[in-house]
Amino acid sequence: MSAVREREREREREIVQNDPSKERRRTRRIERKKNKKENDPSEERRRRKMVKAYTHEHVYKHPWERVTSAFWRKFTEPENKAVLSHIIEVDTLCRTLDPSSGVLFTTRAITVHAPGPRFLSRLIGQDFCHCVETSHVDPSARSMVSTTRNLSLRKFLEVEEKSSYHPHPANPDWTVVRQTTSIRCSPVSAVAAMAEKIEQRCAERFQQNSAKGRDVMERICKFLEAESSKGISL
Fold first, then answer.
1. All structural domains of the chain
2. pTM of the predicted structure, to 2 decimals
């Protein structure tokens, strides 16, 4: 009798295992779990945290021509090196003037101390970072845009900073600068587990350095203004 029952149970198991409806139910369960994860707000927030971005606007109470002149002097004057201590070296790679439009295109190589917390430099074994800055200046439109990206350390961290210089819409004798910075820690690198912390520390460091850069620009603009009032052309 027990042998008969055992055969019946075995047959029931075979029927269940070969039941197409059961396989369909299992597939639907897997699909529901997948959709739930994709639509989970916490999962979406986690993906968005892999990129940290912020925007800052600053108004210089100086005309556009003076502010853009100060831009080119910011890294070249020796007295600024103590303030802009994060800058190691700046070299002009290419400068081209379009004769038809009058637009000036410039590419510069900028070497800086590695951004982010100190433990990141120790982890990756490098305490400096090579960047490239591209810019175009259109004097007729009174427009200047510069974009800076890191070339090294990109398998760990990608940073892009874009700045635009235009006359202030309410006062053409002032200049408004809009700076947008994005910081992305690679999700597949050795520092992925600390991505959010690294991005936050990098953002804080960039904001501090940007503030130093604005102070230098303000000082140069005031110097140019004083020289201009003396009738000296710079």
1. 53-229 (3.30.530.20)
2. 0.72
